[in-house]
Automatic annotation (TrEMBL):
This is Trehalase. It comes from Methyloligella halotolerans. Residues 222-585 form the GH15-like domain. InterPro entries: 6-hairpin_glycosidase_sf, 6hp_glycosidase-like_sf, GH15-like, Trehalase-like_N. GO terms for molecular function: alpha,alpha-trehalase activity. Its cofactor is phosphate.
């Protein structure tokens, strides 16, 4: 497997996704869904845990990669002493979430290149070796309920529980291969012509990008924004509209450490930022699908509201460890599921109601029960907003009265009042207003430290939190308020490391996990947004450009950045990081961007063109 996370590219079909290394190896692939057990898991272990590699047999003098412009079709170009060949990887769109294809096409560019193919299928996150049969179309592999077929004309040889192929490709020649998944109890699907399939896939992505509204973005940043928007689309589970935080699990926040989590789920706290990104980008259909997913997921008793759900709205996300996987660069344990789903985190109430207010302002398709759901949620929050929780960062230590969580409770009531007054909706507005004002006063009294001249992470504490940068964006206080200015300055002094922002100091906070982590990239974008709102445009642009500089050669970002090792860390690619890039880019446009829209409580534009 490749040594660095940034060595990977992402392909997908909005049902599943795969990571492809610079050397032409697919080291991570879950089938048939994002959250299914992986059939290739060498990313988190060794070659024995499954991979699929296509590369030149001999020495490669140069490797270059790119996406076909405005698509999710990945090209890897191998140059050797005898010629040049490309491997094109993509996943065709599928109407059936239980039938997934992955296509790899080898094409000769010049001369002649001696190529090898090596396939090691391992079901169940790299644990189970399937029963493999050779067929006239290639091979057929079965392990319990799962079946994978390799469709190829190559002569294949089986050795040591792996499949090998050897071939030569000359200029103008093409060798296609398709890995096709279906449930064992279902009939295998027809494998269409690969060249026609690639043309359809390329056309889909190009037409999808054309739907977007990228004109306000400066030309120098436009490709980065488009690539980030495509990445968000790739992280969307089309059948439900849910957006996974990342298509991977357990890529470490610190190399060799234990801060390894499963991110193949949908977080409520991403809801507002997702909606603003999609609507400012002109993707109304995707925004409506996301909102619909949220309404389905949160339906039920408000006391049981979770911070995250599965891609179809599943509530049960039990966390366990895969002890047969050694972890990415020996970063164990490898975890599946996420126990944080059962934490008390009151900030999600504010995120949800903020998103629903924004959706109402943008005139997204309404659901009759949406307002009823909101009023029931507020009835519960009115009784429980003073409860302790574990905050936006899901600490596994002691619960606290986190300042950001209290602020989001304030936002929940504030947005409900705004919606009721603006859209003539019925509710106990006077009572809500009293609660809102009480929360505001309490935060200003207990969440602000006069000695530090800054708001602090939790009441009675002395530590800072990058999430406090969202105060002016939420409209809690204006950006020129001295307390906001002081908080920005204190965060710069305390959490800014080598030009990037930590979310909090793990040296001074017992978060119940231990160990250090990299700079959390979404927080650096929040700092850029805070600079923009405060009129520090040069600082905002400098931060934005710095963040653009750490993307990999394909334009992808992980969750965090290790400023010492100078490399990306954490799950990859990370939707939260790409949301930050998109929203910060629109914030830096001449017109008011998502931060200004959110602070003004007017919501995002209806079609991205206002």
């Amino acid at each position: 497997m490749s040594e660095r996370i940034e060595d990977y590219g992402l392909i997908g079909n909005m049902i599943s996704a795969a990571l492809v290394s610079r050397e032409g190896s697919i080291d991570w692939l879950c089938m048939p869904r994002f959250d299914s057990p992986a059939v290739f898991a060498s990313l988190l272990g060794t070659d024995e845990n499954g991979f699929w590699k296509i590369s030149p047999k001999g020495k490669t003098s140069k490797i270059t990669r790119r996406y076909v412009p405005d698509t999710a079709v990945l090209e890897t170009r191998f140059e050797t002493a005898t010629g040049c060949a490309t491997v094109t990887d993509f996943m065709p769109l599928s109407d059936d979430p239980e039938k997934v294809d992955l296509v790899r096409m080898v094409e000769g560019v010049s001369g002649e290149v001696d190529m090898t193919m090596e396939l090691a299928l391992r079901f169940g996150y790299g644990e189970s070796v399937p029963w493999v049969h050779h067929r006239d179309f290639g091979l057929h592999a079965v392990a319990g309920p799962d079946t994978v077929e390799l469709h190829t004309t190559l002569p294949l040889e089986g050795r040591n529980m792996r499949t090998y192929g050897h071939f030569k490709v000359k200029k103008g020649e093409s060798v296609p291969m398709t890995l096709s998944y279906h449930r064992t109890y279902q009939k295998p699907q027809f494998v269409p012509d690969r060249h026609e399939c690639m043309l359809q896939t390329v056309n889909f992505w190009k037409n999808w990008v054309k739907r977007g509204h990228f004109d306000p973005i400066p030309e120098a940043w436009r490709d980065a924004v488009i690539r980030s928007m495509i990445t968000l689309k790739l992280c969307t589970f089309t059948p439900t509209g849910g957006l996974v935080a990342a298509p991977t699990t357990s890529l470490p926040e610190t190399l060799g450490g234990a801060r390894n989590w499963d991110y193949r789920f949908c977080w409520l706290r991403d809801s507002s930022l997702t909606l603003y990104a999609l609507l400012n980008g002109g993707y109304r259909e995707e925004a409506e699908a996301w909102r619909t997913w949220l309404m389905r997921a949160v339906a039920g008793d408000p006391s049981q509201l979770q911070i995250m759900y599965g891609i179809a709205g599943e509530r049960s996300l039990p966390e366990y460890e895969l002890d047969w996987l050694s972890g990415y660069e020996k970063s164990a344990p490898v975890r599946v599921g996420n126990a944080a789903a059962k934490q008390t985190q009151l900030d999600v109430f504010g995120e949800l109601l903020d998103m629903l207010h924004a959706a109402r302002c943008a005139e997204l398709q309404t659901e009759a029960e949406a307002w009823e759901v909101e009023t029931v949620l507020l009835e519960h929050l009115e009784k429980n907003w003073q409860s302790l929780g574990r905050g936006i960062w899901e600490v596994r230590g002691d619960p606290h009265a986190f300042t950001h969580s209290r602020m989001m409770c304030w936002a929940a009531f504030d947005r409900a009042i705004e919606s009721a007054e603006r859209f003539n909706l019925k509710g106990p507005i006077d009572r809500w207003r009293k609660v809102r004002d009480k929360i505001h006063a309490e935060i200003c009294e207990k969440g602000f430290d006069k000695e530090l001249n800054s708001f602090v992470q939790y009441y009675g504490g002395k530590t800072l939190d990058a999430a406090l940068l969202l105060m002016p964006q939420l409209g809690f206080l204006p950006p020129d308020d001295p307390r906001v200015i002081g908080t920005i300055e204190a965060i710069e002094k305390t959490l800014l490391k080598d030009g990037f922002l930590l979310r909090y100091s793990t040296d001074h906070v017992d978060d119940g996990v231990g160990g250090r982590e990299g700079a959390f990239l979404a927080c650096s974008y929040w700092l850029a947004d805070a600079y923009t709102l405060a009129g520090r445009r040069k600082d905002a642009e400098a931060m934005f450009e710095r963040l653009l500089g750490i993307r990999n050669e394909l334009g992808l970002l992980a969750e965090e950045y290790d400023t010492v090792a100078k490399r990306l860390v954490g799950n990859f690619p990370q939707a939260f990081s790409h949301l930050g890039l998109i929203n910060s880019a629109y914030n830096l446009c001449e017109r008011g961007g998502p931060a200004q829209q959110r602070a003004g409580k007017d919501g995002p534009p209806k079609d991205g063109r206002e």
